[in-house]
Amino acid sequence: MIALRIIARLLDYPDRALFDHQADLEAALTDARELNDAQREQLRTLLRDFSACSLLDLQADYCELFDRGRATSLLLFEHVHGESRDRGQAMVDLLEQYRAAGLELDSRELPDFLPLYLEYLSSRAPEAAREGLVDIAPILALLSARLHQRNSRWAGLLDLLLALSESGIAAEALEPQVAQEARDDTPQALDAVWEEEQIRFLGEQGCASAQQEAHQRRFAGAVAPQYLDVAQATTGITGR
């Protein structure tokens, strides 16, 4: 599914390559047979919306949305395992899944980073890719509801992923729940989390430090493409 590769790129940290290869990404939409005309136009509009922004402004918006707090984290296991020990094993299992498919990470991103996972799915057969989306559909719905609450331009990408999953899960059903949530990206909430993680880090020398690093580092990585120069805008998985 080439659409998953394009969506993965739009969910990755914006860089100059995204702007430079907008035309290639738009051209690749023609080959995205899994999309209907309305979905194809939605992605085309998003691409043009992104490229019409200042790169620095788009990067700032991205960091404000995805790097402040955990509610909108693009690390999938953040929403499943949090800081539990199960998260480490889940990472190992996912890496093995990538390797079994003949893929290796060539970036410093964690394997559960959503754009990486989407790029992996884009290399699978359509039915296998759809099953992979079904596996994360509840997380996609939760992220979509939270992004819509924040009037984010990225919300539509989560809606497209849900539609492609054909899971029947709708983000709208979670809107009442999300409306009751306390925001975790306020200065007060971030200070409280930082203080808690500092204590855990000093006491356990555990995965808190890895989580902090994951939230702090910038997203980058261009890999070999499937279509045109599309993967000048892809994430961090390569074939062996």
Automatic annotation (TrEMBL):
UniProt entry tagged with the keyword Coiled coil: yes
UniProt-listed GO biological process terms: chaperone-mediated protein complex assembly; nitrate assimilation
InterPro entries in UniProt: DMSO/NO3_reduct_chaperone, NO3_reductase_chaperone_NarJ, TorD-like_sf
Chain segments annotated as coiled-coil in the UniProt record: 22-49
Any one GO molecular function term: unfolded protein binding
Keywords: Coiled coil, Nitrate assimilation
Keyword Ribonucleoprotein attached: no
Name of this chain's protein: Nitrate reductase molybdenum cofactor assembly chaperone
Phylogenetic classification of the source organism: Bacteria, Pseudomonadati, Pseudomonadota, Gammaproteobacteria, Enterobacterales
Gene that specifies this protein: narJ
